[in-house]
Request: fold
Amino acid sequence: MLLRIEGILSSSELARARALLGAATYADGKASAGTWARRVKNNLELEAGSPGADELNRLVVGNLYRHAAFRSAVLPHRVSAAFFARYTEGMSYGEHIDDPVMGEPQRYRSDVAVTVFISDPAEYDGGELVIQAAYGEQRIKLPPGHAIAYPASSLHRVSEVTRGERVVAVVWAQSLVRDPARREVLYDLDVARQSLERVTPDAQVTARVQSAYANLVRMWAEV
Reply:
């Protein structure tokens, strides 16, 4: 499932993030890539010890974790720190699949990847996130503050930036539910459940859907 999540960062939060990123120091992105991805990765990433790195991470990951759509679709068990990637003219990230297990010292399985867009699409040409999905190639370039969540097992790439600068934050999550098809079923059921809660909170059908959702999570969750 590919899910667009709107409003991760407000306009004031974006302004703060841009200011911090503008004053930050960056390193070659190959340093954080696995063996396969390193061959096709050409970008810059925020250095961990850079001024403002901790604040940026709290801002993006905190807002993402509190977002209802993220919690509903991802059912997060563990969430990584944010990686801030910068692509200037001529940079790209070739086709790859994310490493299945990440993190030091606490390891986590990368079930879901989330890209939070920070640059305005008008500020750069190219730089689309291109995901190979079951229903065909998806080319994604969202407004600042919006995000796309997708299975980390998807083959994906970032097309070459031909003008300007693309800056994004990338976060990975280990879900309580490993199977992406089951996560999609639970997300659809949760959307229906929340709609029934708003419209007919005391109806028997609402209670039955609530029960079905809870029991499916209980059946499929890994903790």
User: Anything to note?
Assistant: Residues 180-199 form the longest helix (20 residues). The chain has a mean pLDDT of 95. The helical segments are 11-22, 35-38, 53-66, 68-74, 180-199, 204-220.
